[in-house]
UniProtKB/TrEMBL annotation:
Chain segments annotated as transmembrane: 61-87
Name recorded for this polypeptide: Thioesterase domain-containing protein
GO molecular function term, any single one: thiolester hydrolase activity
Residue stretches making up the Thioesterase domain: 48-123
CDD domains for this protein: PaaI_thioesterase (cd03443)
Keyword entries, A-Z: Membrane, Transmembrane, Transmembrane helix
UniProt organism field: Acinetobacter vivianii
Length: 140
C-alpha cells in the first residue's frame, strides 16, 4: 500500500501545492524519507539563523511524507505531538536537509524521528520526535 515518490508529489501538488514551492523530496525509503528545503529570508530570525517555526514545519512535513511513502496516500493523517531538541544554530545561508525514519507504525498512531541539518554540514542542527494519528477506517 506504499506510495512512490511520483505518487506523493502528485498528491501534494493537488492537496498542498504550497508545500512543493520550497522543497524537493530527495528520497522515499521503506520506512522513511529525505527532503531538501530551500531557505529564504522569510525563514530567518535575527542573527542570520533559521527560525524554530521553520525547523518544526520542515520536520512535520518530512514526517508526513514518510508516512505517505510507507502507508500510501492517507490524506487525513494529522500531527498529534512534536518535540524538538535544538542542538546548534542553523546556517541561514544554507538550505536544510531533513532525514526521517519511522520508529513505530501502529493501527492508529505513527511515530517517527527527524534529523535536521544545514546543507553540507554533518552535524545536525535539531532532532524531532513526532506522532501522527491515522484516520479510523470505516466499519461496515
Amino acid at each position: 500500500m506504499a506510495a512512490t515518490k511520483d505518487e506523493i508529489m502528485g498528491f501534494l501538488a493537488q492537496e498542498f501545492p504550497q508545500a512543493l514551492m520550497k522543497s524537493t523530496i530527495e528520497e522515499i525509503t521503506p520506512r522513511g524519507a529525505q527532503l531538501l528545503y530551500r531557505v529564504d529570508a522569510g525563514d530567518l530570525r535575527p542573527g542570520q539563523t533559521v527560525s524554530g517555526p521553520t525547523l518544526m514545519l520542515v520536520a512535520d512535513y518530512v514526517l508526513y511524507i514518510a508516512i505517505l511513502g510507507h502507508l500510501g496516500l492517507v490524506a487525513m493523517a494529522v500531527t498529534t505531538n512534536m518535540t524538538i531538541n535544538f542542538f546548534r544554530k542553523p546556517n541561514g545561508n544554507r538550505d536544510l536537509r531533513a532525514v526521517c525514519k519511522l520508529i513505530k507504525v501502529g493501527k492508529t498512531l505513527v511515530t517517527g524521528e527527524v534529523w535536521l541539518y544545514s546543507l553540507d554540514d554533518e552535524e545536525p542542527v535539531a532532532h524531532v520526535i513526532g506522532t501522527y494519528a491515522l484516520p479510523q477506517k470505516p466499519t461496515d
